[in-house]
Amino acid sequence: MAKVPLKLGEMIDGEALRGKLASIADDCGDAAGHAARAAVLALLRDELAAGRARAETMLMSDGGGTACAARLSHVMDEIIRALQDFVIQHVYTSRNPSSAERMAIVAVGGYGRGTLAPGSDIDLLFLLPYKQTPWGEQVTEYVLYVLWDLGLKVGHATRNVDECVRLSRTDITIRTAVLEARYICGDTGLFEELLERFDHELVRHSGSEFVQAKLAERDERHRKAGESRYLVEPNVKDGKGGLRDLHTLFWIGKYYYRVRNGEELVGRGVFTRKEYLLFRKAEDFLWAVRCHMHFHAGKAEERLHFDIQRDIADRLGYTSHPGLSAVERFMKHYFLVAKDVGDLTRIFCAALEEEQAKHVPGINRIFQTFSRRRRKVAGTSDFIVDNHRINVADPEVFERDPVNLLRLFWFADKHGLEYHPEALKLLRRSLKLIDRNLRRDAEANRLFLDVMTSDRNPELNLRRMNEAGVLSKLIPDFGKIVAMMQFNMYHHYTVDEHLLRCIGVLSEIEHGDDERIHPLAHSLMPGLRPQREVLYTAVLLHDIAKGRPEDHSEAGARIARRMCPHMGFSAAETETIAWLVENHLVMSMTAQTRDLNDRKTIEDFAQVVQSVERLKLLLVLTVCDIRGVGPGVWNGWKGQLLRTLYYETELLLTGGFSEIPRVKRAAHAREQLAAELSGWSEDARARYVRLHYENYLLTVDLADQIRHAEFVREADASGKRLATMVKTYGFEAVTEITVLAPDHPRLLSVIAGACAAAGANIVDALVFTTADGRALDTILINREFDRDEDERRRAERVGKLIEEALSGKSWLPEIIEKRRKKRGSRAFRITPQAEIRNTLSNRFSVIEVSGLDRPGLLSEITGALSDLSLDIASAHITTFGEKVIDTFYVTDLTGQKIENPTRQAAIRERLTATLEGATPSKPSRTSQAAAAE
Predict the structure, then answer these.
(1) Is 5 exposed, middle or buried (0-12, 13-18, 19+ CB in 10 A)?
(2) Where is each ACT domain found (predicted)?
(3) What is the DSSP letter of 530?
């Protein structure tokens, strides 16, 4: 990496600045007065702004992140030096200073390293020889107040040398700050005394203690920021693989190895020259990203939110390539750098561990040697167990037999061993041995399959293979999706991390862990045991073709057909894996976006699946895929939809699907309902049963029909025209709200608007009308509370708002407008689409719309459908992060499908405009209230 010239002389002229400050003192006469202070503040504010502007311009020109941070630090140094000179020469002058009236201003913390981001804190130590004096207090206060008035965040401490050393003994944060102390101005003797005493009294005797404290601190920081370094909105400063991890390495190296800069670690054998250059390159990139983020946001923004990722990619000069947008290419580079930081950390810790082992004194060293004794790994002479971790027996292990690159992971898995850092270091330096011959080697492939399908912890060992670079070399197509981010709010991890987490979920299912999450998948796994290698391989490969211009499912199937024969799979097994990869989204999309009560949905899905065996495999793959997306994506409602689709399809594939005509099935359902209403009078029972049409009787479970009957009966008895009923479902993680109201074309639109105003997310809706002109609509919303009592109270509040909206008491557009857009949604661009299909149902036209989500969108869409004179039978609402895919089963007002091409075009045009927000379909006060008339 070429080093970017710092050009510090171009940033700020310190001598000229001091001259201007002296002129202010001369012009004002009273340097301590308000006029002089205001002039000083104005001058320094201009100098700071000009320095930052020059730093940003140079960053945009040369791209040097570390150079930009050094330039900003230099600007601050010169401002503080000039300010201190002004204070002690013109404001608080001391004619005959005593030995106590001395001070050094020292940069500590990040500023002490000589690097600053535009929004970084300025950490200062005002170093004194003894106790504070009135003169020292005045100088310190003047400097600090000016810096604060400049809008800077200043962390500061005023201590003498004794206090610095004493506090450093007990506070690791203070010790780290002093470790990075850098002289800015003032008494140099004080600063040198601090460094000498700090090194002699602390650093020399406490290396191991400091190392343990900083590594524990790092682990806690990772826990708070998110354990994975592949979160799609990473924290550039404190996240795993971020700048703080590099700083931790530098702190430990500086403290333990007693070096003053990172390059000296090469001489100490910690890093090779290549690894040190990788350290520098990673640091430079992360500093560039962080500085761009601060300049762009105008503040200390540390998390790469979706809102700014596209802008930062533009500032860094990334462009789009086929299959990957500019922002996705930028983020892939970011995650590759984060991976490099992880590699450097492991290398560093390995060297540190060996160094510490050399310096264990006396009897402790004997015990450590005993506890670390080496032994051979059973079944091989190429690997040993070193301190409970697998290590290589000699440096030629991989050169001698490249298959050992896989055996390392196989033996580690078989014996439950962690990996010795030295073995991983040698492995990374031997990756060139993985070539076409090794990829086709039968034993190597057998070993890989054993690791991937292990009964122990396949996710852990595959992750180690990925971190070491073996997976990318062994499966080149996998290498293309390593660190690849998908720019959306649905996927929480990079593609490779998602695939590894899916393997972990599959292993959990097989072990019976979390059976309550999806009991059907768990119950099917024992029967799939003979095909577990097929299933594990399909799970690993299902997203392997992401980031290509073509459909990733089809491209992934081609990759599977090419790879699997070399992995030892038969032609039939290869075809099954390829089919699973090609169709891995079909079950999820069918379950979430189609009406599972419509027989045509089940018939079409069964036509794709064709066999019960494939159905079982696809169900388990689908569960793994959804659960591996990220926290909060899976819920019980999705599980229930998958179970329903599975059972209905299994029934059809095994010949159990009912062939009884629809009219006869409806008549039988009517008789069943009448029989269950045993406590009703004969007239009331007959009158109620006649209210419902065939679709209601064939769609709604008998238990729910009985519940609805009591609900309607109670509403009628109390004379209510509007009524709502709530039922919570804990396992399915949804809550049902049933609405009884006079039928109206915009009824569903008003209900959806009320739910949006209440912050309730609708996932499904069934719409029924009765023979007496009323609507009995069932709305399912995502559950928010764990306790049924809390959830019921919340749902009742939603129901109350629905009733108020339908009666015209609440004005929905105003309430919806108050709800802020979800964070990040404005960063995304989704082309709105509206499709009308008549082949997906025998009785309904199916309208599918997709676009960017926003509060109240469902209300606008359903309102538009009503304006278009369409009757909605059911609505299926699916949200993938910022994207919605909503499906409506509709007819015209005569109960027929929408066949006319001109009318279809008009519907598409209106819905597309609604999705774009061009013609919002908000109900007027009159139409909203009319829904209750």
Answers:
(1) exposed
(2) 736-818, 846-928
(3) G
